[in-house]
Amino acid sequence: MTNLPPPPRPVTPVTGYGAAQILERGYRRYDGERLGRGGSIRSVWWYSIQRMLGMRRSVWSKLLPAAVIFFSYVPAIVFVGIVALAKDSPELTSSLPGYEDYYGYVMLAVVLFATFSAPDVLCPDRRTGMLGLYLASPLTRDTYLIAKGASIMAALLLVTAGPQLLFLLANTLQGHTVGNAGDTMLMVARIIAAGVVVAALFTSITMAISSFTDRRGFASAAILLIIFASGTIGGAFQDAHPNLGLLGLAVQLPDALTTRTFGVTSSGPSADITTGLVWLVGLGIIAGCTLITRMQYARMQVTR
Amino acid sequence: MTSAATVDAHRHDRSDSDDQGPVIVGHGITKHWKSTPVLTDADLTVGPGITGLLGPNGSGKTTLIGMILGLHRPDAGSLRVLGLDPTVAGHEVRARVGYSPEHHRLPPDTRVSDFVAHIAQVHGLPRRAAINRASDALWHVGLGEERFRPLGTMSTGQRQRAKLAQAIVHDPALVLLDEPTDGLDPLQRDDMLDLIRRMGRDFGMHVLLSSHLLEEVERVCDGVVILRDGKVAVSGPIDTVRGTGTGVIVELVGGWVQVAAVLRAGGFTVSRDGQKLVVAARTAGSDPDEIFDAVRDAVASSRSGIRLLKARQTTLEDVFLSEPVSVST
Questions:
Q1: Do B176 and B62 meet the contact criterion of CB atoms below 8 Å apart?
Q2: Which of A21, A90, A164, B5 has the fewest beta carbons closer than 10 A?
Q3: How far away is chain A from the Cα of B142, in angstroms, using its nearest Cα?
Q4: Burial code of B89-106, b = ≥16 C-beta within 10 A, e = fewer?
Q5: Residue ranges of chain A whose CB lies within 8 Å of a chain B CB
Q6: Residue B180 pLDDT > 70, yes or no?
Q7: Each residue of A100-121: pLDDT tens digit?
Q8: What does the alpha-carbon distance between residue A286 and residue A207 come to, in Å, rounded to a whole number?
């Protein structure tokens, strides 16, 4: 009797979970779309906004921005509530502050937001070497600063223009309008313009200060110190010499700029200063601070 | 900005990188930081393939990388990277180059997948492609399982890999690696060098590997540029730079004094290296077999024994330690 070979194993169909295989795909080339410098700028812009708002970060990183944004909307929510509850009391609704006065209620929140925003998006890039990686991409130092500045401004608009827009929207829906549709659109434009002006002012100042250190804490402390010290010193001079209007402007520049954007002359210490001079000082500070930031970044060594 | 032009431009990228010509060509590059000269009249040719950029600390390696990226402008001379002038078309060069810096400081609270995907987007990739390629790149460098970990929790070796992943995620034609094995233990260093070799051989990228470690450049590179005192001491294919054997190494079982005396009498230069004799040719370019024959005869006449006899290979260390030599390309 001869030994027969073992019978062949039955061939099972390769289907279902048994068909699963792990394949080494190897390195794949990318021949798809590239978005160029615009894509690079947009990417840094959106990534920085996410960082400022604490998105994709720990809970503690979300707390401060969420709290500041919430507090900037509280007055608007309260005013909207008053309008809703006191519709039949025109005296009460007419005593509510105007849109141009809203900054008086939220300026502290705006300053706080600006205090941590710029240091949060600029300082870690230098401390962690990300700046070198950014500048090894299609970005240049200028386009990098544009992306960062635009992101700070966009985030600041949440607190400089957002609450008033909410206030206006809610008032309009409740019939407490500013006039006809044209007047409403004009008010929207003024709210946005004022928000942009205040955001640009704080963005330029905080970026300039942040460009001197790679430590977030130092930058935030320096921003608070400079903003409050300039206000205190300016206020002291103003009290001592009421005619020194320009020094009063140092205290109330954001207020002076916003009220003039709404076409109203400020009632504060800067009331006597011409609108042209207010704009000159405001734009001068924005331009000067932007120049300082640019000079600081121009001389940074980034490939180490 | 999603124009067909940008897609076409990238397709041009690949055809450039497939070209087997030099990737970087520099002539007479001079650079000073204030009054301190960093590079002086440097001529160099890099690529194709993997090229080592060697030099001691402060020899101008990082400055040269900065100039390749278009971040510094040479005071004099010309530089072409992937056929482009980085002083004029810096952003175009950087779009096609990946860069891994020397430092290990990376955003500690950012997940490595987010970090790599963000760098891909900064190099112009759309969001979805960036996320997919970031995942692929992290698997290639061996961080696939760790991709959701924050960078701050990673070891030095893992950060080096993360830096490598962000350098290749956008499929660059040229990758600049600044001290990629710094801070790694020997096993990690071997893995990293294998990875770099794969980048050059399998991924089809040109690589410029900046290092001060001669041995790792010898292991993975096809070419080498050696900087010394701000000048290019040597530039060219690594085999050409090392040259062929320049003598013979012989290890004897006793009698080395007599053998050395016989060889010296025959006009050869003999030096002792531990237990070995190094015998150099009488004249440059002479027949190597002549030395072997002379050693054989000398050993036979002195009745000594040979334990080892081999041609002496010039190492990069020999080249590095020698006086500046002419540039070979």
A1: no
A2: A21
A3: 13
A4: ebbbbbbbbbbbbbebeb
A5: 25-40, 43-44, 47, 56-58, 61, 124, 127-130, 132-140, 302-304
A6: yes
A7: 788 888 888 999 999 999 999 9
A8: 10
The label of the residue with tokens 């790149």 reads B137
pTM for the model stands at: 0.81
| B48 cis-preceded (ω within 30 degrees of 0) | yes
| Tokens 């608009």, located at residue | A157
Q: ipTM beyond 0.95? A: no
Question: Measured between CB atoms, does B1 come within 8 Å of chain A?
Answer: yes
Contact B314, B243 (CB under 8 A): yes
Q: Does B34 touch chain A (CB under 8 A)?
A: no
Cα separation, A301 vs B102, in Å, equals: 13
Characterize the bridge pairing of strands B206-211 and B174-178.
Answer: parallel
B172 interfaces chain A, CB cutoff of 8 Å: no
Instruction: Calculate the CA B74 to chain-centre distance.
Output: 22
The nearest alpha carbon in chain A to B99 belongs to: A136
A208, pLDDT greater than 80: yes
CB B206 within 8 Å of CB B47? yes
pLDDT at B13: 47
Residue B236 is predicted with a pLDDT of: 83
What is the chain B residue with the closest CA to A132?
Answer: B101
Q: At what angle do helices B186-201 and B156-168 cross, to 10 degrees?
A: 10
User: Rounded to a whole number, what is the distance in Å from the CA of B183 to chain A's nearest CA?
Assistant: 16
Closest partner residue to B14 among A25, A29, A58, by Cβ? Answer: A29
The predicted structure's pLDDT at residue B6: 40
Six-digit token pair at B6?
A: 């940008």
